[in-house]
Design goal:
It is a single chain. The chain is of the alpha+beta class. The chain has four domains: 231 residues, FAD/NAD(P)-binding domain, CATH 3.50.50.60; 154 residues, D-Amino Acid Oxidase, Chain A, domain 2 (2-Layer Sandwich), CATH 3.30.9.90; 33 residues, no CATH class; 140 residues, no CATH class. Helix content is 29%, strand content 22%. Strands 1, 2, 3, 10, 11, 12, 15, 21 and 22 form a nine-stranded mixed β-sheet that branches. It has an eight-stranded mixed β-sheet with strand order 7-8-6-17-18-19-16-20. Helix 8 packs across helix 9. The two termini are 39 Å apart. Bound molecules: flavin-adenine dinucleotide and iron/sulfur cluster (2 copies). The site of one iron/sulfur cluster has 15 residues, from helix 16 and helix 17.
Length: 620
């Protein structure tokens, strides 16, 4: 058995080990679905010998889950979901049991016109915008927004739920912990999987008492090796364990993870005096602040509103930044009339894996199985990831219970016959197939992308555009015009004179108006890092962001890693090279796919591993 690295260099005899039956990495909705289903089957028949431990005879099944974040509510999204799988798991589910949750009551799709003329719109879009403006209310254009006459069937979430993912995760975790059947350890990053040949035999926890490079100090505490019969990986879009498995096993033929997005959202409290939309109101938006950026507005109970944007990897621009774009988004007249007197309660950012089935890894192998977004479950057509992630966890748990009862081992063949079979036969798989090529068109432009999305959506995937996605680092500069380079140079000068972050200078240089800070809702990026949650890293862990080759960075004009960093954790040092500050990192994982250079033609120049810290707010 071996792990990928032996960072401690002190030999294996000092490293503690523990044997369990099932070891789990990450606690998101996928793991919630897995542990909920497993413990429910167990609690229905506690005397069932299937739930006796094989590694500690005489003891109950040993199930332990490790979560990197320092609480179990570290999620980011305000979530709309049809909740098909979640409602099967909780047939008596009542939205009012979970803070910020409600039934969905109203849904709209809005195409947002650019009210200030700053966004990078193609000629075709400008023409369409002009026509809409001339038609005005006749074409349902109000407050610079065109309301689609209907919500396309593939997008609607009628009858579904609006949740705070942080609150939902916490609600699930509290039930699991009170059941006493499983252990969940927050604040415990898993460093890497333990490999046995092509299989996985457990998890290695991150070393503590090391410096930022991983060198042991006097308080060195080597991370434990948790040896397990089954290792369940639910570490999300950018998880280090999933990445390590892909490095060793590769991916199924023709599969690659090349489409990504960064989702960033604000949770805003609207005062009593302000006009308020009905709780359960859902807006999906497109068109602004840039044509490539989709947005959302969800109205929770208690005068709380989630507003956010999704910045995709196919936005051909090295100056990507979500934070300032999000500030412009909420100031769009269609949203601002409801949000303008609000207060920022919390915010967050996280990567979304948008390759769908094209990015699906090996779902299982000897001793391991993968669930959730890291297993390619997110549906790109319906913009839905939570219910799918939850359901893959449920499917794996049902398979595990079946194997435990049959006394069968967790081999590739047995997991294929149980978990693989359930997943392939399910609505998650059907949805993933329909969505498979729905986003490809965006690599050739926004209008082509929207046409491809509509075609795939309206025909259930039977008709879609052909194409392929280049590696993410190539997507960044693909359609840059000479004028973009000139603006970037102007912005660089501006940033030096003004001392402001580069991405901020870039949007100003492009003609975006300055943000009228009000200290409440419109605050600087630095101030936001101190609001509504906590950004911090426990001391004694190694850095989790590394630059592979600094000579590439020295020659890099784009510095996309600096411009897009959600936490301003990547900045330039005195030599003009990027440098990482763990204490500011919100663990959005976007630096993994936001570098415009590559050593090997596939990966960017940044490694994103397992680490401590992040921005955590229960309300996210
Ligand atoms: C802004 C935004 C809006 C969204 N809106 C919606 C929506 O409206 N509807 C919808 O259905 N979906 C939405 N999503 C997507 C949804 O959040 C994801 O699809 C879903 O959370 C995936 O669940 P998961 O359990 O697979 O992964 P995650 O929720 O990412 O959970 C993975 C967990 O693993 C932990 N982890 C990672 N690495 C390690 C490690 N090394 N050691 C220990 N723990 C680790 C992470 O901290 C995390 O808690 C949105 C996402 C964002 C960012
Ligand atoms: S990691 Fe280096 S090469 Fe990549 S964008 Fe940043 S500075 Fe450029
Ligand atoms: S350094 Fe941290 S905050 Fe910045 S992009 Fe990477 S993961 Fe996100």
């Amino acid at each position: 058995m071996h792990a990928l690295s032996q960072a401690d260099g002190l030999g294996e005899d000092v490293r503690p080990t523990m044997d369990v039956d099932i070891a789990c990495a990450g606690f998101g909705p996928a793991m919630g679905g897995f542990l909920h289903t497993l413990t429910r089957a167990w609690s229905e028949n506690p005397a069932d010998p299937a739930f006796e431990s094989a590694v500690t005879p005489g003891m109950p099944l040993q199930v332990v889950c490790y979560e990197r974040a320092d609480d179990l509510a570290a999620a980011v999204s305000g979530v709309v979901t049809r909740a098909r799988g979640i409602r099967v798991s909780f047939p008596d589910f009542k939205a009012d049991e979970i803070p910020l949750a409600t039934e969905i009551r109203q849904e709209k799709v809005l195409y947002l016109l650019d009210p200030i003329g700053a966004s990078r719109r193609s000629f075709g879009l400008r023409v369409a915008d002009t026509v809409l403006r001339i038609l005005g209310p006749l074409a349902r254009v109000r407050n610079h927004a065109f309301e689609l006459p209907w919500v396309p069937g593939f997008l609607h979430k009628r009858g579904g739920l609006l949740l705070s993912l942080g609150q939902f995760n916490q609600w699930v975790a509290s039930q699991l912990l009170s059941s006493g059947f499983v252990q969940i350890w927050p604040g415990t990053p898993v460093a890497e999987p333990l490999f046995t040949g092509q299989g996985v035999a457990g998890l290695r926890l991150a070393d503590q008492g090391v410096d930022k490079h991983g060198t042991p100090s006097e308080s060195y505490l080597p991370g434990m090796d948790v040896q397990a019969r089954l290792t369940v990986i639910g570490d999300g879009a950018v998880g280090a364990i999933g990445q390590a498995i892909d490095e060793i096993l590769g991916r199924p033929k023709g599969h690659a993870r090349r489409d990504w997005a960064l989702g960033m959202k604000f949770l805003i409290e609207v005062p009593e005096s302000a006009e308020l939309l009905e709780p359960g109101t859902i807006w999906h938006t497109l068109g602004y602040p840039e044509p490539e950026i989709f947005g959302f507005l969800y109205v929770h109970p208690e005068r709380l509103v989630s507003a956010g944007i999704v910045v995709p990897s196919w936005m051909h621009d090295p100056g990507r930044t979500a934070y300032r774009y999000l500030q412009h988004f909420i100031q769009h007249p269609a949203l601002w009339r409801y949000l303008k007197d609000g207060t920022l309660r919390s915010w967050g950012a996280k990567s979304l894996e948008e390759s769908g089935r094209h990015g699906e890894p090996f779902l299982f192998g000897d001793g391991f199985a993968r669930i959730g977004e890291g297993s390619g479950s997110t549906n790109l057509l319906t913009n839905s990831g939570v219910d799918e992630a939850w359901t893959t966890g449920v499917q794996l748990a049902e398979a595990v219970v079946e194997l435990l009862r049959a006394g069968k081992p967790f081999t590739t063949a047995e997991l294929d016959a149980t978990y693989g079979a359930r997943r392939r036969a399910s609505w998650v798989e059907q949805g993933a197939r329909e969505a498979e090529n729905s986003r490809i068109g965006f690599h050739s432009g926004t209008i082509r992308g929207l046409i491809g999305l509509a075609l795939a959506g309206l025909t259930h995937g039977r008709i879609s555009l052909a194409g392929s996605a280049p590696p993410p680092w190539e997507q960044i500069r693909k359609r840059m015009r000479p004028a973009d380079t000139l603006t970037r140079r102007a912005a660089a000068q501006f940033a030096v004179q003004d001392g402001r972050p580069f991405h901020d200078a870039l949007l100003t240089a492009r003609g975006w108006p300055e943000i009228p800070f009000d200290g409440r809702l419109l605050v600087t990026h630095q101030d936001a890092l101190l609001m509504g949650g906590k950004v911090q890293a426990a001391p004694g862990f190694a850095d989790h962001v590394h630059f592979r080759d600094l000579t590439l960075c020295a020659a890099c004009e784009d510095k996309t890693c600096v411009a897009m960093c959600s936490g301003q954790a990547i900045t330039l040092n005195a030599e003009g090279l990027p440098t990482f500050e763990c204490e500011k990192c919100v663990h959005c994982g976007a630096c993994l796919w936001n570098c415009s250079h590559s050593q090997d033609g596939e990966h960017g120049n940044i490694e994103f591993g397992a680490g401590s810290g992040g921005l955590h707010s229960v309300e996210n």
